[in-house]
Structures are given as structure tokens and as C-alpha cells.
Task: structure prediction
Amino acid sequence: MELRKNILKIEREFGEFDKVKFTFRYLGVNEKERIFIQKELADLELKTNKIENEVYVINFPLTDEIESERVKTINEKLELPLTKFGISVSFTTNYDHAGFRLPKKIREFYQIVGGEFDCSIIMIEENV
Result:
């Protein structure tokens, strides 16, 4: 397994790779929370989407450089409920049954920050 930026590549047979992408998301934050988060995390690659009038989703790649205590402090200052933030994992594979173990850094981040833990699994079937 090889972790590059926020993508884990898992080598499978025949030189193929499964890809696992790790993202941290703020869900349904209001205008005041959005401004605070963007200010506090201005050095990160933030993506902000407006989902309705003054309600936003903010996400950023979860990399080894992200400090869990920093994110935890933001969440505590804003008094965000655990349902308004968390880790999103996207697993893309060519196999109908495959798996992986979360990298230690991701497990430790989640233990400190908490929140939701969402997963999506995408199987890409090769044409035979």
C-alpha cells in the first residue's frame, strides 16, 4: 500500500491498483461557520459548495500534513455537533470483493476529531 497525498493506492494482481481517497467534510455549515472555517484553514485546498441559501459543504483532502488537533479545535470553537463534520472515504476497485485497512494516520485522526464516517465503494468492471 502506498499513501500519496490523500489517495491510497493498493496494488492488486496483474499490476492493477485499487484507489482509496480520503476527504474531510463539513456538512451543512452556515455562513458564519463557513467564514470561520475558511479563515482558519486558508492554507489548505478547500472546496466549498453552496447547497442552499447560506448553507454550505466544505471539504479538503485528508493528508498526512493535516493536524487533527487543529481541526478538533475549530470544531470545538464552533460547537459543531458530530453530525456536521467527518471523514469521507471513496474506494474504487476492479474487484467484486476487495478490502483495505485504514492507514494509521487516518485512524488516529478520526479517533481525535470524531464525527461522521462515510464510505462509498465503486466497482469498475473491466470489459472482458
Remarks:
- Residues 2-123 form one domain.
